[in-house]
Amino acid sequence: MPELPEVETTLRGIEPHLLNQQVARVIVRDPRLRWPVPAEVVKAEGQSFISLSRRGKYLLLKLQQGGLIIHLGMSGSLRILQHPTHPAKHDHVDAELQNGVCLRFNDPRRFGAFLWVDGEMNEHELLSDLGPEPLSDEFTADYLYQRSRERRVAIKNFIMNGHIVVGVGNIYASESLFMAGIHPQRAAGRVSRQRFEGLVAAIRDVLDRAIRRGGTTLRDFVDSEGAPGYFAQELLVYDRAGSDCFQCGAPIRQKVIGQRSSYYCPACQR
Ligand SMILES: [Zn+2]
Fold it and tell me: 2, 188, 213, 242: which has the fewest C-beta neighbours closer than 10 Å?
Protein backbone atom coordinates (compact mmCIF):
# COMPACT_ATOMS: atom_id res chain seq x y z
CA MET A 1 0.00 0.00 0.00
CA PRO A 2 1.43 3.42 -0.90
CA GLU A 3 2.41 5.22 2.29
CA LEU A 4 3.41 8.84 2.81
CA PRO A 5 6.94 8.40 1.35
CA GLU A 6 5.57 6.81 -1.85
CA VAL A 7 3.00 9.60 -2.18
CA GLU A 8 5.74 12.22 -1.69
CA THR A 9 7.86 10.42 -4.30
CA THR A 10 4.89 10.36 -6.67
CA LEU A 11 4.47 14.10 -6.19
CA ARG A 12 8.14 14.73 -7.00
CA GLY A 13 7.94 12.35 -9.96
CA ILE A 14 4.94 13.99 -11.65
CA GLU A 15 5.37 17.64 -10.65
CA PRO A 16 7.98 18.72 -13.22
CA HIS A 17 5.83 17.30 -16.04
CA LEU A 18 2.56 18.95 -14.99
CA LEU A 19 3.44 22.34 -13.53
CA ASN A 20 2.25 25.21 -15.77
CA GLN A 21 0.97 22.73 -18.36
CA GLN A 22 -2.53 22.96 -19.74
CA VAL A 23 -5.00 20.06 -19.61
CA ALA A 24 -6.51 19.26 -23.00
CA ARG A 25 -8.81 16.39 -22.07
CA VAL A 26 -9.77 14.26 -19.09
CA ILE A 27 -10.85 10.71 -19.92
CA VAL A 28 -12.61 8.64 -17.28
CA ARG A 29 -12.81 4.99 -18.35
CA ASP A 30 -14.12 3.65 -15.07
CA PRO A 31 -15.48 6.05 -12.44
CA ARG A 32 -15.96 3.34 -9.81
CA LEU A 33 -13.20 4.19 -7.36
CA ARG A 34 -13.57 4.56 -3.60
CA TRP A 35 -15.94 7.41 -4.42
CA PRO A 36 -17.23 7.76 -7.98
CA VAL A 37 -15.03 10.00 -10.12
CA PRO A 38 -17.27 13.08 -10.51
CA ALA A 39 -18.27 14.35 -13.96
CA GLU A 40 -16.87 17.75 -12.89
CA VAL A 41 -13.29 16.55 -13.48
CA VAL A 42 -13.74 17.81 -17.06
CA LYS A 43 -13.65 21.33 -15.55
CA ALA A 44 -9.86 20.80 -15.60
CA GLU A 45 -9.92 20.98 -19.41
CA GLY A 46 -8.40 24.21 -20.73
CA GLN A 47 -6.81 25.01 -17.37
CA SER A 48 -3.16 24.86 -16.27
CA PHE A 49 -1.72 23.30 -13.14
CA ILE A 50 -0.48 26.14 -10.91
CA SER A 51 0.78 24.07 -7.98
CA LEU A 52 1.15 20.47 -6.87
CA SER A 53 1.37 19.49 -3.22
CA ARG A 54 0.67 16.72 -0.75
CA ARG A 55 -1.47 16.70 2.38
CA GLY A 56 -1.14 13.43 4.28
CA LYS A 57 -1.56 10.83 1.56
CA TYR A 58 -3.66 13.09 -0.68
CA LEU A 59 -2.15 14.70 -3.76
CA LEU A 60 -3.47 18.18 -4.48
CA LEU A 61 -3.22 19.30 -8.11
CA LYS A 62 -4.30 22.91 -8.12
CA LEU A 63 -5.53 24.45 -11.35
CA GLN A 64 -6.30 28.09 -12.10
CA GLN A 65 -9.84 27.52 -10.85
CA GLY A 66 -10.45 24.50 -8.64
CA GLY A 67 -8.32 21.40 -8.66
CA LEU A 68 -7.98 17.65 -8.42
CA ILE A 69 -7.54 15.60 -5.25
CA ILE A 70 -5.99 12.19 -5.89
CA HIS A 71 -5.51 9.37 -3.38
CA LEU A 72 -3.68 6.18 -4.33
CA GLY A 73 -5.71 3.98 -1.96
CA MET A 74 -4.36 0.43 -1.61
CA SER A 75 -2.93 -0.11 -5.06
CA GLY A 76 -3.14 3.12 -7.08
CA SER A 77 -0.33 4.71 -9.05
CA LEU A 78 0.25 7.67 -11.33
CA ARG A 79 2.49 7.66 -14.37
CA ILE A 80 3.65 10.24 -16.87
CA LEU A 81 3.50 9.07 -20.49
CA GLN A 82 5.39 11.21 -22.96
CA HIS A 83 4.19 8.99 -25.78
CA PRO A 84 0.82 7.71 -24.56
CA THR A 85 0.25 4.03 -25.16
CA HIS A 86 -3.07 2.21 -25.37
CA PRO A 87 -4.65 2.10 -21.92
CA ALA A 88 -4.32 -1.23 -20.15
CA LYS A 89 -6.68 -2.84 -17.69
CA HIS A 90 -7.11 -0.71 -14.53
CA ASP A 91 -5.97 2.50 -16.27
CA HIS A 92 -9.10 4.25 -15.05
CA VAL A 93 -8.38 7.94 -15.66
CA ASP A 94 -6.14 9.94 -18.05
CA ALA A 95 -5.45 13.65 -18.00
CA GLU A 96 -4.05 14.52 -21.43
CA LEU A 97 -2.02 17.70 -21.64
CA GLN A 98 -1.92 20.16 -24.52
CA ASN A 99 1.72 19.20 -25.13
CA GLY A 100 0.84 15.52 -25.72
CA VAL A 101 1.97 14.22 -22.33
CA CYS A 102 -0.51 12.08 -20.40
CA LEU A 103 -0.99 11.66 -16.65
CA ARG A 104 -2.41 8.17 -16.16
CA PHE A 105 -4.11 6.85 -13.01
CA ASN A 106 -4.06 3.08 -12.56
CA ASP A 107 -5.69 1.30 -9.63
CA PRO A 108 -6.39 -2.47 -9.72
CA ARG A 109 -8.21 -2.58 -6.39
CA ARG A 110 -10.06 0.73 -6.92
CA PHE A 111 -9.75 2.01 -3.34
CA GLY A 112 -8.15 5.19 -4.65
CA ALA A 113 -9.83 8.50 -5.34
CA PHE A 114 -9.84 11.04 -8.18
CA LEU A 115 -11.95 14.01 -7.11
CA TRP A 116 -12.77 17.53 -8.21
CA VAL A 117 -12.75 20.52 -5.83
CA ASP A 118 -14.26 23.88 -6.76
CA GLY A 119 -13.08 25.99 -3.84
CA GLU A 120 -10.08 26.09 -1.52
CA MET A 121 -8.53 22.62 -1.61
CA ASN A 122 -7.41 22.50 2.03
CA GLU A 123 -10.99 23.17 3.14
CA HIS A 124 -12.28 20.02 1.45
CA GLU A 125 -13.97 17.75 3.99
CA LEU A 126 -11.35 15.03 3.50
CA LEU A 127 -8.56 17.43 4.45
CA SER A 128 -9.98 19.98 6.86
CA ASP A 129 -9.71 17.86 10.04
CA LEU A 130 -6.29 16.35 9.40
CA GLY A 131 -3.51 16.67 11.97
CA PRO A 132 -0.15 18.28 11.17
CA GLU A 133 2.36 16.91 8.68
CA PRO A 134 4.99 14.78 10.46
CA LEU A 135 7.84 16.58 8.68
CA SER A 136 6.52 20.08 9.49
CA ASP A 137 7.52 22.38 12.36
CA GLU A 138 4.07 21.99 13.91
CA PHE A 139 4.79 18.36 14.73
CA THR A 140 6.67 18.55 18.03
CA ALA A 141 7.03 16.60 21.26
CA ASP A 142 5.07 19.35 23.05
CA TYR A 143 2.21 18.99 20.61
CA LEU A 144 2.01 15.19 21.08
CA TYR A 145 2.37 15.58 24.84
CA GLN A 146 -0.53 18.05 25.04
CA ARG A 147 -2.78 16.00 22.77
CA SER A 148 -2.13 12.74 24.62
CA ARG A 149 -2.81 13.74 28.22
CA GLU A 150 -5.53 11.60 29.83
CA ARG A 151 -5.63 9.38 26.72
CA ARG A 152 -5.62 5.65 27.39
CA VAL A 153 -5.38 4.64 23.74
CA ALA A 154 -2.27 2.62 22.82
CA ILE A 155 0.54 4.93 21.68
CA LYS A 156 0.73 3.06 18.37
CA ASN A 157 -2.93 3.76 17.57
CA PHE A 158 -2.48 7.34 18.77
CA ILE A 159 0.30 8.13 16.28
CA MET A 160 -1.56 6.31 13.46
CA ASN A 161 -4.62 8.54 13.97
CA GLY A 162 -4.75 11.06 11.10
CA HIS A 163 -6.42 13.65 13.33
CA ILE A 164 -3.31 13.62 15.54
CA VAL A 165 -0.66 13.42 12.81
CA VAL A 166 -1.00 12.38 9.16
CA GLY A 167 0.89 9.74 7.24
CA VAL A 168 2.29 7.52 10.00
CA GLY A 169 1.24 4.16 8.59
CA ASN A 170 1.54 0.76 10.24
CA ILE A 171 5.13 0.09 9.16
CA TYR A 172 6.39 3.54 10.20
CA ALA A 173 4.57 3.40 13.54
CA SER A 174 6.19 0.05 14.41
CA GLU A 175 9.62 1.20 13.29
CA SER A 176 9.58 4.57 15.04
CA LEU A 177 8.30 3.11 18.34
CA PHE A 178 11.17 0.63 18.28
CA MET A 179 13.67 3.43 17.59
CA ALA A 180 12.20 5.44 20.48
CA GLY A 181 12.14 2.40 22.81
CA ILE A 182 8.41 2.75 23.49
CA HIS A 183 6.17 -0.31 23.83
CA PRO A 184 3.39 -0.04 21.20
CA GLN A 185 0.68 -0.80 23.75
CA ARG A 186 1.73 1.83 26.29
CA ALA A 187 -1.11 4.27 27.02
CA ALA A 188 -0.48 7.50 25.07
CA GLY A 189 -1.20 9.51 28.21
CA ARG A 190 1.62 7.72 30.02
CA VAL A 191 4.41 8.67 27.63
CA SER A 192 6.66 11.39 29.06
CA ARG A 193 7.51 14.61 27.26
CA GLN A 194 11.11 13.46 26.98
CA ARG A 195 10.14 10.18 25.34
CA PHE A 196 7.94 12.08 22.89
CA GLU A 197 11.08 13.98 21.87
CA GLY A 198 12.63 10.67 20.90
CA LEU A 199 9.47 9.51 19.14
CA VAL A 200 9.11 12.68 17.05
CA ALA A 201 12.76 12.41 16.01
CA ALA A 202 12.27 8.72 15.12
CA ILE A 203 9.12 9.36 13.03
CA ARG A 204 10.87 12.13 11.11
CA ASP A 205 13.95 10.01 10.61
CA VAL A 206 12.14 6.90 9.36
CA LEU A 207 9.96 8.90 6.92
CA ASP A 208 12.87 11.02 5.77
CA ARG A 209 15.01 8.00 4.96
CA ALA A 210 12.16 6.38 3.03
CA ILE A 211 11.60 9.56 1.02
CA ARG A 212 15.29 9.81 0.21
CA ARG A 213 15.31 6.19 -0.94
CA GLY A 214 12.28 6.96 -3.10
CA GLY A 215 14.28 9.70 -4.80
CA THR A 216 16.25 7.04 -6.65
CA THR A 217 13.05 5.78 -8.30
CA LEU A 218 11.86 9.13 -9.69
CA ARG A 219 12.52 8.22 -13.30
CA ASP A 220 10.22 5.19 -12.94
CA PHE A 221 7.30 7.59 -13.16
CA VAL A 222 8.02 8.49 -16.78
CA ASP A 223 7.17 6.12 -19.63
CA SER A 224 7.44 3.03 -17.46
CA GLU A 225 5.68 -0.12 -18.59
CA GLY A 226 4.03 -0.95 -15.32
CA ALA A 227 3.19 0.99 -12.20
CA PRO A 228 6.12 2.63 -10.40
CA GLY A 229 7.51 0.17 -7.89
CA TYR A 230 7.61 0.86 -4.20
CA PHE A 231 11.02 0.98 -2.65
CA ALA A 232 12.22 -1.67 -0.25
CA GLN A 233 12.54 -0.49 3.33
CA GLU A 234 15.34 -1.42 5.69
CA LEU A 235 13.15 -2.61 8.50
CA LEU A 236 14.24 -3.04 12.12
CA VAL A 237 11.16 -4.80 13.55
CA TYR A 238 8.32 -4.76 11.01
CA ASP A 239 7.61 -8.23 9.57
CA ARG A 240 10.50 -9.71 11.60
CA ALA A 241 8.54 -11.80 14.14
CA GLY A 242 10.81 -14.42 15.73
CA SER A 243 14.01 -12.89 14.33
CA ASP A 244 16.66 -11.43 16.63
CA CYS A 245 16.37 -7.80 17.71
CA PHE A 246 19.24 -5.89 16.07
CA GLN A 247 19.81 -4.10 19.37
CA CYS A 248 19.66 -6.82 22.05
CA GLY A 249 19.20 -10.17 20.28
CA ALA A 250 15.82 -11.00 21.87
CA PRO A 251 13.20 -12.43 19.47
CA ILE A 252 10.93 -9.78 17.91
CA ARG A 253 7.28 -10.26 18.82
CA GLN A 254 4.16 -9.80 16.77
CA LYS A 255 0.85 -8.75 18.28
CA VAL A 256 -2.39 -7.39 16.87
CA ILE A 257 -3.03 -3.91 18.25
CA GLY A 258 -6.02 -1.98 16.97
CA GLN A 259 -6.59 -4.66 14.31
CA ARG A 260 -3.14 -4.11 12.82
CA SER A 261 -0.12 -6.38 13.08
CA SER A 262 2.44 -4.79 15.33
CA TYR A 263 6.07 -5.79 15.78
CA TYR A 264 8.24 -4.90 18.75
CA CYS A 265 11.11 -6.00 20.94
CA PRO A 266 9.82 -6.97 24.40
CA ALA A 267 13.21 -6.12 25.93
CA CYS A 268 14.01 -2.79 24.24
CA GLN A 269 10.50 -1.31 24.26
CA ARG A 270 8.71 -0.37 27.48
ZN1 LIG B 1 15.74 -5.53 21.66
Answer: 242
